[in-house]
Amino acid sequence: MTVRIKDLPTAADRVSEITGRVTGKRIAVFLDYDGTLTPIVDRPERAILSDEARAIVRSLSTRCTVAIVSGRDRPDVEKLVGIDTLVYAGSHGFDIASPDGRSIQREEGGDFGDLLQAVIARLHRELDTIEGALIEPKKASVAAHYRLVAEPEQRKVKAAVDGILADHTDLRVTPGKMVYEIQPKIDWNKGKAVLHVLAALDLDGDHVVPFYFGDDITDEDAFAALSGRGIGILVADPSDPAIDRPTYADYRVRDPDEAVRVLDSFAR
Prior knowledge:
Helices cover about 35% and strands about 20% of the residues. It is an alpha/beta fold. It has an eight-stranded mixed β-sheet, sandwiched between helices. A four-stranded antiparallel β-sheet has the order 7-8-10-9, with helices on one face. Helix 2 runs parallel beside helix 8 and helix 4 packs antiparallel against helix 5. The longest helix is centred in the middle third of the chain and has 17 residues. About 45% of the residues are buried.
């Protein structure tokens, strides 16, 4: 069941209520990265995790399972977070690995490698002349960022992406915040990745309450997957027009700083 984001209760004001829901149970915490642990920035490489946030996540990971579920390439987000005791799911959950490299290993879309390389080359041909356009290759997808593209030119980025989808019906695009993520069209997303991690670690029973923190449309798959069995916390700026859209989350926080403070309350 969905509600409007603006109608969600604020997690920072309901910490006691939230902790009461998990009394006597184990928890598992799943965290998006960009826009959730760090603010959205103009260029992906500038999204640096603060020392405070890293310390809080590390402390929490000593008490429960913590996983990062990011649209970034897995090695990229592993390097940015810099904590080797976490589970990492990169490329929107298409590439998953556990700290020991054995108990959880899953790769989706591996057969699409050659096609994605061709898509990357095509995007460069069509977008490299557009000032501000940024192409981000990943293991199982490619992202076309247009945050720095002048508004009149943004339609050219969309046209390039639409052209690729028209020519390759086995690909899909996942829209994000000023980015088009081109992925293999297979039945996999962040929600399925979260459920896979829970099952692989024997955390999918009634004795565990999973939390998911996210900020974007791609995180709705995880909120939906955990609806009724876990707790979803959405990072949403009250001034963002998207505050009126529906969500499967249970609570909201206003920004990454508030998200980290709520995490700190769990760690304590």
